[in-house]
Amino acid sequence: MSKKAWAFLALAVVVVAVLLGATASAQELETVRLSEVVRSVFYAPQYVAIANGFFEEQGLEIDLSTAWGADKGAAALISGSVDVGFFGPEATVYIYQQGASDHLVGFAQLTARDGSFFLTRDVEEEFEWDNVRGKTIVGARIGGVPQMALEWVLKKHGIEPFVDVEIITSLAFEAAVGAFEAGMGDYIAQFEPAMSEIQARGRGKIVASIGAEAGPVSYTVYHARKSVLEENPDLFVRFTRAIHKGQKWVFSHTAEEVAEVIAPFFPLIDHEILVQSMGLYQSIDAWPTTPVISEEHFLHLQEIMMEAGELEEIVPFSVLMDTTIANAVVGEGK
Prior knowledge:
Blueprint: H1 3-28, E1 30-36, H2 44-51, H3 54-57, E2 60-66, H4 70-79, E3 84-87, H5 89-97, E4 104-111, E5 116-120, E6 136-138, H6 145-156, E7 166-168, H7 176-181, E8 187-191, H8 194-200, E9 205-209, H9 210-214, E10 220-225, H10 226-231, H11 233-251, H12 255-262, H13 271-283, H14 295-307, H15 317-320, H16 324-332
Parallel strand pairs: 1-2, 1-3, 6-7, 6-8
Antiparallel strand pairs: 3-10, 4-10, 5-8, 5-9
Helix pairs in contact: 2-11, 2-12, 6-14, 11-16, 12-13
C-alpha cells in the first residue's frame, strides 16, 4: 500500500474515532426537561449557560420548553412532564396552601428583582410617581408577582391601586405591549426588551424600574417536586453548577458580550436593543451572583403578596425553599 493510501486510511480512522466519540458523548448526556415561565431576556444567565455548554460540562442536555405562565409551568412540574420548573415562587406558595402532598421546592435562584420597567406614553413628561393619579396603567395578571410588585411600588409612593389610578389586568402577557401601542393606557409596566423597543420607536419613555423600587425579592426560581429532589440530588447539583457558572459569566462580562451570546434565543430582537436591555438589567442588579435563595428576599416576596391581598399567612422558608444544593455548589469554588 502506498504512503498516500496509508495516510488516507489513517485519516479515515481518526475521523471515525472522533465521530464515534462524539456520538458516545452525546449518548452519555442526561436529558433534563426544563420548563421556563416565559421566554425573556431577563433570564440571560440561563441562556448563557445553555449556549456556552455549561450544562454539557455537567453531563446534562437541556430540553427547554416555554410554559407562558407560572401556573402552567407549575402544573407541568406537578404532572411530571418536566423535571425542573422555572417560575416565581408565588406559584409554589399557592400550591402548598392547597395541601399538595408532594409539593414543589425551590432549589436555586436566577433573578433577584422584578424585571419590569415603567414607561410613559408622553416622551416629554418630567416623571414623578404622583403623575399617575387619575391615569391608566397597563399592568399584568392579578396574583402574579409583576402586578403585585407594581401595586407595592404605587403604595410606597402613596398611591392606592384601583382607587387613585386605574390598572388594566385582563390582558395576556404577550398582548399587553400591543394594546399599549394601539392606544390603551397612559403608562405600562413590562419586561425588557419591550420597553426599549417602544422607546426606540418614539412611542414612549422608560422612567422607572419596578425592580429597583420594590427591592430585592426571590423572583424567579428553579423548582422540583420534593420527592424527586430527594431521590436524585446529584442531578440538581450538576444543574445548579451550570446555572451558577452562567451567573458568574454574566457578572464578569459586558452587556454587549452577554447580548452576543444570548442573541440566538431572540432572533427577532435588534442587537442594539438587546444590548440596551442587558445594560438596564445589569444597572439594577437584576441577577444575583450565586444561586442561593435568600430567606430575607423570600420573606419580602410574601410581604408583597400579603399587601396585595393574595396571601393571608406567611409560609416558612424552610418548607418551600432548600438552599442545601446551592450552598454546596457555591462552596465548591471557595
